[in-house]
Amino acid sequence: MQDVDNQIAELTREISTLPKHIAEIARKLEAHERKLEADRAALAANQKDRKRLEGEIQVQQQKISKLKDQMLEAKTNEQYRAFQHEIEYCEKEIRGAEDQILDLMGESEPLERNVKAAEASLKQEKVQVDAEKQQARERTAKDQSELEDLQAERRSIAAQMTPKVLTAYDRVRKLRHGVAVSEAIEGRCSQCHMSLRLQFFQDLKRGEQVMHCESCSRILYYNPPATLENLTGEPAPAARG
Predict the structure, then answer these.
(1) Sequence ranges of the chain with CATH classification 1.10.287.1490
(2) Does the first or last residue of the chain, that is N or C, have fewer Cβ atoms within 10 Å of its Cβ?
(3) At what angle do helices 77-160 and 2-71 cross, to 10 degrees?
(4) pLDDT in tens, 169-182
């Protein structure tokens, strides 16, 4: 019963852990997807700003072209200088826009690399995540089937136990974190390591009743040491006089 319960506990832990594992890898994937979307948005904003600045340059160039035409019709030096100042202002605006475009181009290069690398990495990661999810689903189904078999085996074993012993076993198992049975080795409980009284140990060896450790309350059992005859199937050699 203890061995079966240990296996049931292990499978139950594994079954409960697998969905958490799937959720964790899904969260990582979502985080990488959000980072990729942020990089894409930054790249799109960069390209939009460049397009806007290129449009502004075109507008200023058109202004300069008109101003130059108007300069040809200037009748006084003051009018000519005024047109010239406006042209210089437009040229300054163009240089400023060109500088911003260069800065944006410098920013866009790493963004483009990041987006391309993230897209390739995310594609591989999605394949891996899908494979892990499938493996987890298959493992869960297998564990669930094994768990049902073990639970059926447990019911079969429980049916062969007296209600009193079964009740005591279940009570101690809950009290001692799932471990209700302990082997007595060299006069000690192998779980709590407390020494057993000599008479108690002798009674345990006889195996006539279910006995509990007087310290931790676990059900004790005793395995006699293996003899040479037990190991080889041959009688042990007689002692020499």
Answers:
(1) 2-159
(2) C
(3) 170
(4) 999 999 999 999 99
